[in-house]
Every structure is written in C-alpha cells, then in structure tokens.
Amino acid sequence: MAKYRFSRVRYIAYTAVFAALSAVLMSLSFSVPFMPSFIKLDFSEVPALIASFSMGPVSGVLVCLIKNLINVTMTTTAGAGELSNFILGVLFVVPAGLIYKFKRTRIGALIGSVVGAVIMGLMSLLTNYYIAYPVYENFMPIEAILSMYQAIFSDVATLWDCLLIFNMPYTIFKGLLCAVITFLIYKPISVLMKTIDSRLRVRKYDKLVEKRAKENGEQTTPSDGDPEAGASDPRNDETQSGV
Does this model's pTM top 0.70? Predict the structure, then answer.
C-alpha cells in the first residue's frame, strides 16, 4: 500500500496545532522533588514527537522551534533556556523520527525514542554547561546554584558533577517519559488525523463531481467514500501498523 501523505496545507495546519499544544504544555511546567527547584518538568516534547512520527522529522523540528519562539516572549532566562530546550528537543525528535521513517513499526518507534532520549541526555551536558548555566549565573551566583544541588546530594562539588549526576539522567528520563506518553496516545490521534483527512478528500471529490455534473447538466449524489483506495477507512493505512 502506498505510504500515507499529507497535503502541504494539512501539513502546515497540523504542525501549527502541535506547536500550539507544545507551547501550552511548556508553560505548564512544574518542579520535581529530586531536582533543584529551578529545573522544571514539562511534556512539551510529546506533540513534537507525534509530529515527527506522523509527518516526519522536519515537522517535529518546526514544532520545537515555534513553541520556543512563543515561550521566549515570557522568558526568565534571557532566552538561554529556550535555546537550550530547542536544541535538545531537536536532538530528541529528529533521531526518533528518522529511525521510525525507515522502520515504521512499534519496535522502530521504540528504538528511535530511546536513541533520541540518550542523545538528548548526553548533549544536555554541553548545552547546559555552555549555554544555559552561564546565563543563570547572571541571576544567581554559581555557589548558590551548587548549594541547591548539594542540598539533595552533598557529594557534588562542581557544575560538571551536578550535570553528570542530576541533569543528564533527568533529561534522559524526561525523554523516555515523553516517549511513553506518545506511545499511549499516538494511535487514536493518528486515526483522528486520517479520519479528518479522509472526510476532507471526500468533500473535495464531491465538489469536483458536482461541478462537472453541472457543466454537463447531470444530477449527482454524495459519495460514500474517497475514490482513493483506503481513504474511507483511515485505519487501513500502512502507518497504522507502526506506533
């Protein structure tokens, strides 16, 4: 069966919807007990991962970009946090989307998500050390930052210790958690998207038939399905065998 394709208009529309959802989820971040209070947990990578699986890695990147452009208007980190979040988000959804693109199965999605989460965690060492924390130091002395980590685990002595012991595992955990949520909700969202697309194609086809009938002076009746194979039932699509 031919691979499912989105039209350019629907691609843009769905990417915008996922970006808006992602921006909202990013604004709903919250503290977690095993991390310093200034580090928040959010699930904004879930819509980006869904977009990357359903429409390709470029859509996932656009979702990460747009959500951070929206949230940077409310930033408290001079944009450093949003820049770091964008870089890490891209490093998460691109490997996941690329692997799933060439292996469109649950195993492919699982491997892609794990690989993306690990890459994101490893690269968080660099983005935090060279981008985020130098900006944080303008608002809070490094000693104060270290003391917040030491209140949880007293053996950390340097920023690298903090990033290795706390931030990197936390980032990997966050990526895997977002992947689990994506696995739980991807199927119904994917079916809904394809149902909407199928109905839009049917309406477009009916209008075309009606137009031609009027030109020929004939009467028409609404069609029961898309003339394209499988369009009347989105669950017949090949991509449904994946995530």
Answer: yes
What distance in Å separates the CA atoms of residue 40 and residue 30, rounded to the nearest whole number? 5
Inside any domain, residue 212: no
Tokens standing for residue 169? 């595992």
Q: Is the dihedral of CA 204, 208, 209, 213 positive or negative?
A: positive
Distances (CA, A) of 222 to 132, 207, 210: 58, 9, 9
Q: What is the pLDDT of residues 71-95, one digit of tens each?
A: 999 888 888 889 999 999 999 999 9
pLDDT digits (tens, 9 = 90+) for 103-157: 999 999 999 999 999 999 999 999 999 999 998 888 889 999 999 999 999 999 9
Whether residue 231 is contained in a domain is answered as: no
- 22: domain CATH number is 1.10.1760.20
Paired strand residues for 31: 40
Please, are residues 114 and 92 in contact by the beta-carbon 8 Å criterion?
A: no
Based on the structure, what is the number of domains in the chain? 1
